[in-house]
């Protein structure tokens, strides 16, 4: 009898540990800010961002959407991003930044999301590094001189779609009006939430194709 109780106790403990691990992997770890990679170098607001190598030129406002298909936060955020992209696509150049080494991943993304937006392949994380991004989903807004006007979360947390804290949307509205980014927005953007980009994740080989 005692042996059966012991086996049951061990099994129950293993089940609890397993459920706890699954909860951590799928939910809990995303409640915390994304860990800062050891090699991360911050890029300050107002810095010039040269993306000419990717045919992104000055002259128009530019919005970059950093997407990781393996990230549940990125996938959940797509509906919100589509709404924002649709709102501003006539007033700005809107791009999706997809980390991959395979050109076919672009077509896979297009078929899956059907956004009709240009996609930039960030082969080695060079675009994210230039913009100071290490988490997804994140947005970057450049002014007409390709200076960093905004970078950060779409909202206060990964699953929050509160209108009053729609940071990327607020940034676009102010930039289009020729206004400075509100100070309270920059204060809220100190910690990104979501998933570590593949190029910044030491526990993950950098290959996106298997994620779709």
From TrEMBL:
Extract the GO molecular function terms from the UniProt entry. antioxidant activity; oxidoreductase activity
| Keyword annotations | Membrane, Transmembrane, Transmembrane helix
Q: Where is the Thioredoxin domain?
A: 31-177
Q: Name one Pfam family in it.
A: AhpC-TSA
InterPro entries, A to Z: AhpC/TSA, Thioredoxin-like_sf, Thioredoxin_domain, Thioredoxin_ResA/DsbE_sf
**Membrane spanning segments where?**
7-24
SUPFAM superfamilies of this UniProt entry? Thioredoxin-like
Top-level division of the source organism's lineage: Bacteria
Name recorded for this polypeptide: TlpA family protein disulfide reductase
Q: What is the lineage of its organism?
A: Bacteria, Pseudomonadati, Bacteroidota, Cytophagia, Cytophagales
């Amino acid at each position: 009898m005692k042996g059966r109780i012991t086996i049951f106790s061990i099994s129950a403990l293993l089940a609890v540990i397993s459920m706890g691990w699954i909860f951590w992997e799928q939910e809990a770890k995303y409640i915390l800010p994304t860990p800062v990679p050891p090699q991360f170098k911050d890029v300050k607001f107002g810095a010039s961002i040269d993306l000419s190598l990717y045919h992104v030129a000055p002259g128009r406002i530019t919005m970059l959407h950093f997407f990781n298909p393996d990230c549940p936060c990125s996938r959940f955020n797509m509906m919100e991003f589509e709404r924002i992209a649709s709102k501003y696509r006539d007033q700005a150049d809107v791009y999706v930044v997809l980390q991959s080494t395979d050109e076919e991943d672009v077509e896979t993304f297009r078929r899956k999301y059907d956004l009709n937006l240009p996609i930039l392949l960030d082969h080695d994380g060079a675009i994210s590094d230039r913009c100071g991004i290490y988490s997804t989903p994140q947005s970057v807004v450049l002014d007409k001189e390709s200076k960093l006007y905004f970078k950060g979360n779409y909202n206060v947390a990964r699953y929050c779609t509160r209108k009053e804290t729609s940071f990327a949307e607020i940034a676009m509205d102010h930039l289009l009006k020729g206004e400075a980014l509100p100070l309270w927005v920059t204060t809220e953007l100190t910690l990104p939430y979501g998933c570590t980009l593949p190029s910044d994740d030491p526990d993950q080989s950098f290959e996106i194709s298997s994620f779709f």
